Amino acid sequence: MKNIVLILIGFLTIQTFAQSKNFIDQPFLETIAEIDTLVTPNKIHLVIILNEEDNRNRKSTEELEASMLRVLNSLKLDLEKNLSLLDYSSDFKKYFLSGQKILKTKMYSLIVNDAQTVGKVMAGLEREEISNVSITKTEYSKSDQLLLNLKAKAILKAKQNAEKMVEPLNQKIGKAIYISDLETESITSQLQGRVAGVQIRGYSSIYGSRAQEDIVIDFEKMKFSTKVKVKFTIE
């Protein structure tokens, strides 16, 4: 039995070596191609904090919540899908003022699809004395499909490169015998408030006068890139 196992291992080793040798013996051309693109974020995460202590008229959390919902509904947002409660507990932040009065805090997550809507949300909430609004994250919702498309374009570019390289030799490339995904990069911005990548105009004037103007926000575009290595046979 032991001899049979040794013979089988020897046969598999010879076969593997022969396949490897056949691959090495083939004339081939190796080329690397990279493709990238820039896209505008279309999934922007906001955090809205409602705190009785944050407004000068000392509105209750319930009153602030009603004002928030009124503003968001006026913008025709799908609140059932894009608004969620992150935290609500009178024990999360409580302050005992004038005896047993408890100031409560509520924290909401809101997802919107463009910078213009972000500006309208922030301006509308500020007019209702809800100023604790921050941008926490930006995404591109179709990133997976975008990266697949970039890979396909990178492989096509690698083929075109290979064809041009053998053209002066009056030769042609054959089938691809090796493809490697060298590097794929998708940049998802993790943002905290007014940071690099976000430009906000009109914010200070609204804070000062609560004027009836929208906040203008510009987001830096997100970069997606991919790089592939491909080996083609030479005919």
Determine the structural class based on helices, strands and strand pairing. alpha+beta
Mean pLDDT: 78
Give the SSE order as H and E letters.
HEEHHEEEEHEHEEHEE
Major sheet: size, sense and barrel closure?
4 strands, antiparallel
Helicity, as a percent range: 25-40%
Distance between the termini: 46 Å
**Could you give the count of β-strands?**
11
SS field, number of helical segments = 6
Content of β-strand: 25-35%
Description:
InterPro entries: SIMPL/DUF541 (IPR007497). This is SIMPL domain-containing protein. The chain has helices spanning 2-25, 61-74, 79-82, 115-127, 143-166, 203-209, and strands at 28-39, 43-51, 83-88, 96-97, 101-102, 105-112, 133-139, 173-186, 198-201, 216-219, 222-234. It has 235 residues and is α+β, with helices and mostly antiparallel strands. The strands form four sheets. It has a four-stranded antiparallel sheet. Strands 1-11-8 form a three-stranded antiparallel sheet, covered by helices on one side. A two-stranded antiparallel ribbon has the order 4-5. A hairpin with a 3-residue loop joins strand 4 and strand 5.
